[in-house]
Every structure is written in structure tokens, then in C-alpha cells.
Amino acid sequence: LKEKHKILHRLLQNSTSPVDL
Amino acid sequence: PESADLRALAKHLYESYLKYFPLTKAKARAILSGKTSGSAPFVIHDMKSLTEGEQFINCRQMPVMEQRSEFGHVQESASEVELRFFHRWQYRSAEAVREVTEFAKSIPGFVSLDLNDQVTLLKYGVIEVLIIMTASLMNKDGMLISYGQIFMTREFLKSLRKPFCEMMEPKFEFAIKFNMLELDDSDMALFLAVIILSGDRPGLLNVKPIEDLQETVLQTLELQLKMNHPDSLQLFAKVLQKMTDLRQLVNDHVHLIQLLKKTEVDMCLHPLLQEIMKDLY
Predict the structure, then answer these.
(1) Which of B108, B166, B259, B277 is packed most tightly, with the most Cβ within 10 A?
(2) What is the DSSP track for B151-168?
(3) Mean pLDDT, to the nearest integer, of B240-252?
(4) Are residues B120 and A1, on separate chains, in Cβ contact within 8 Å?
(5) How far is B13 from chain A (nearest CA, A)?
(6) Which of B175, B188, B182 is nearest to B246 (CA)?
(7) What is the pLDDT of residues B152-161, one digit of tens each?
(8) How far apart are alpha carbons B1 and B221 in whole angstroms?
(9) Three-state DSSP class for B138?
(10) Do residue B118 and residue A2 have CB atoms under 8 angstroms apart?
């Protein structure tokens, strides 16, 4: 599931660094 | 003491809500009723005003309006403008998904859940949360977008070509009924957490801790509604009933997006929204 949802996974993991949407 | 814990949870979630969501219901209602000290929102009610106003969609601060007339001269087909507007809308939606994710992470216990389950809860919950939050920005005549800088009329959204015209009307119908419950931002914060912590989402690996977290938030919501709306009978039950309508709305929304992907050759869906909608229902 994590593999199919890489961006969502990244949003969940990164708390402070801005995520390039 | 138990009640004090629930009050503390309510306060914590309300503070997170204020921290992560830029336009609160209180602020949106003030703008919609013309009770703000700032300027009134720019109104998009036809293709011309869309062409003028679309430059500012997603802007937090509207630029000086003298520039507007320049954009009106650009001759484009309505279909191009509609598609571009949809793209901008999508980017704001992706940003809103990020805000909801940050809010979810602030729910005590959420980040301790299995990471796969966190992904599942967000995948299934995020569109429901966004529909609920959009209701705060709507009245029967239209909705605020771009952080409250723009008011887009319901009639204009209905006038777009198919299937764009079918996207927002069910959300307006839902919003009008939902807004009659008159929840405020502190109630909304708890309701959103309840939605996110739904233990019956497909594919969850470890349901028990999710249900335990949801139970605590549910108790908090029940207490909050009793204290905040003492005269509103059965409000807790009425709020929970809305969760059924929400699932149907999301189901219909995802099918419309799938239809769009088939009919609009130029449409490309934002990768984050693609992830969420793929195999959703």
C-alpha cells in the first residue's frame, strides 16, 4: 500500500520539511 | 477527571484545526455575510469574470485589481478556460490534502498506528473531510474559493459543460443541509477527527487501536455538542448520520473524476489525487 501511495506516504513521514506537491 | 481529559482533547484538536486550515468556518461565514472589514470577494459568475479572476485562484492575497481588465481581452475558448480552471482547482485540492494530513497527524495516537493503516485512513477519509470543510465555504448561492478571496456562484458552476457542471451541485445540496446543524469550528475539528478515524475502511490491518481512538473522539464530540449546543436535540446523532451521506458523495465524486479522465483528453489529474482516487471505490 505504501508503494502505491508514495506522495501520501511522504506527507505522513515528513513533519517539518516542505513537500513538493 | 475523565470529562477534563475529553475537554483537553477537544481543545487540542481545535488548536490543530486552527493551525492547519487557513480559512475557518467563522471567517468564511463572516465573508459570506459581508461582515468583514476587508474588501468583498471577487465574484466569478460567468466566463468573462472567470477569465479575469482565474489568475488569482489559489492566491492568498489578491493583487491590485486595476490589472484585471487586461486579462479580459485574451480570447480563448470556454472549454480551455474550464479545463485550466479545473487544473487550478486540483492544485488547491492537493494542498488541502496536505493540510488534512497534518491535521490527522496531530490527532493523539494517529502517528503510532501502523503506517499502512495511516495511509488507508487518509486515502478513504480525506475527500470526505474536504467535502465537509467545503460546506463551511458554501451558501445556497455559491462558494468561497482561494482562501476566501473569490466567490464563485452556484449558477455559474451549474452552467459549465458536462461533466464539470455535475461536480459541485451535489456538494451544495449536502452543504445546505449540513450547515443547518450550525456546527462551529471547534465542533468541526472533532467531527473531522471522527471521520478520519473510521475503523471500517477497506484493507485496514489493525482495526482495534483505530476504533479505540475513534471512541475517545466520539465521546469528546458528544460532550462538546451537549455543552456547545444545549438546545439542539439529538445533534450528536444527526451529525453522525451525515457520515453515510458523505460516503455516497465521495463515491459519486470519484466516478465523475473517472468519467472526466475518459472524456477529457487534455486532462491530467494531480499525482496525489490520482493516488487517492485509484481503486478507492
Answers:
(1) B277
(2) EEEHHHHHHSPTTTHHHH
(3) 95
(4) yes
(5) 17
(6) B175
(7) 999 999 999 8
(8) 17
(9) strand
(10) no
- Which residue type, as a one-letter code, is found at position B131? I
> Cβ of B123 and A8 within 8 Å?
yes
Nearest-by-CA chain B residue for A9:
B119
Q: Provide the shortest C-alpha distance from residue A7 to chain B (in Å).
A: 6
End-to-end CA distance of chain A: 19
Contact A12 B271 (CB under 8 A): no
For chain B, strand residue ranges (E) read 42-44, 138-139, 142-145, 150-153
B202: nearest CA partner in chain A: A1
What secondary structure letter does DSSP report for B139?
E
pLDDT on residue A21: 54
Residues of A whose CB is below 8 A from B272: 7-8, 11, 21
Position B265 scores a pLDDT of 67
B258–chain A nearest CA distance, Å = 18
pLDDT at B73 over 50: no
What whole-number distance in Å separates Cα of residue B225 and Cα of residue B219? 10
* Mean of all residue pLDDT scores within chain B: 91
Q: How many CB pairs under 8 A join A and B?
A: 46
- pLDDT > 70? residue B253: yes
Q: Which of A1, A2, A8 sits opposite B272 (nearest CB)?
A: A8
Query: 3-state DSSP: chain B helix, strand, coil percent, rounded to 5?
Result: 70, 5, 30
pLDDT, one tens digit per residue, over B31-65 is 999 998 778 899 999 999 998 887 777 666 655 54
Q: Is the peptide bond before B163 cis (omega within 30 degrees of 0)?
A: yes
Q: Do A21 and B203 touch (CB under 8 A)?
A: no
Judge: A9–B271 Cβ closer than 8 Å, yes or no: no
Q: Decide if B173 contacts B87 (C-beta within 8 A).
A: no
pLDDT of B275 strictly over 60: yes
Of B227, B257, B225, B220, the closest CA to residue B238 belongs to B225
